[in-house]
């Protein structure tokens, strides 16, 4: 499998360096779990994958785009190949969950019939088809996060980035989200990268574990 992310001596900073000369690669069929202490740079690293933070120095290629010096066109094209799941859901509260899931497809200009069908299929998959006409604030936190996962998968991304996707959820909801993320890899063929404080001991599938320590990205055994 080809590398979907390749980093060499990567440095990322805010006021001071956070990621300090990290080198690693991610294959297109990987499921990656990234852990580290609070403030270690987990979210900073994942932001660099979609251009949410600039590369200070070193090399970073994501989906064959050079993130050290991306053009605005590069970023637009790259983000059409990426799905993102945030800890705080970031759903549009004034829209039904059906329309929220349709959003990536609407941005890409797909016809409404196709958008509605894909949204319906994904909401059924995350076990929310019976609530298709509801609004986000009518759902529990776990249900909102399942909508967010469905939205992130709507356009069949090559790369699914998840920043603390279960941080606000109870154990039952958290386990459901992990199951859906596994399906994103196994059924849809996406490379999945999850940032979390701790990888659950209950995961029943193979994954690669990266830990951020003192600005380095270290792969665990």
From TrEMBL:
Transmembrane segments: none annotated. GO terms for cellular component: plasma membrane. It comes from the Bacteria. GO terms for molecular function: ATP binding; ATP hydrolysis activity; transmembrane transporter activity. Gene3D superfamilies: P-loop containing nucleotide triphosphate hydrolases. Residues 2-221 form the ABC transporter domain. Keywords: ATP-binding, Nucleotide-binding, Transport. PANTHER family: ABC TRANSPORTER ABCH.1, IMPORT ATP-BINDING PROTEIN. This is ABC transporter ATP-binding protein. It comes from Campylobacter corcagiensis.
């Amino acid at each position: 499998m080809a590398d979907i992310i390749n980093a060499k001596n990567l440095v990322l900073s805010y006021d001071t360096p956070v990621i300090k000369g990290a080198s690693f690669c991610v294959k297109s069929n990987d499921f990656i779990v990234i852990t580290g202490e609070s403030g270690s740079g987990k979210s900073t690293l994942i932001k660099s994958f979609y251009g949410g933070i600039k590369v200070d120095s070193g090399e970073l290629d994501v989906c064959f785009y050079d993130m050290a010096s991306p053009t605005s066109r590069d970023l637009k094209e790259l983000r059409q190949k990426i799905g993102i799941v945030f800890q705080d859901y970031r759903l549009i509260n004034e829209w039904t969950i059906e329309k929220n899931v349709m959003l990536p497809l609407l941005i890409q200009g797909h016809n409404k019939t196709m958008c509605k069908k894909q949204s319906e299929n994904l909401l059924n998959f995350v076990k929310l088809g019976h609530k298709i006409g509801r609004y986000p604030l009518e759902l529990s936190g776990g249900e909102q996060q399942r909508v967010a996962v469905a939205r992130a998968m709507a356009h069949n991304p090559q790369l699914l980035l998840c920043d603390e996707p279960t941080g606000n959820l109870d154990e039952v909801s958290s386990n459901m989200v992990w199951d859906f993320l596994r399906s994103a890899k196994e059924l849809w063929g996406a490379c999945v990268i999850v940032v979390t404080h701790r990888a659950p001991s209950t995961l029943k599938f193979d994954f690669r574990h990266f830990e951020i320590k003192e600005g380095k990205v270290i792969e665990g055994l």
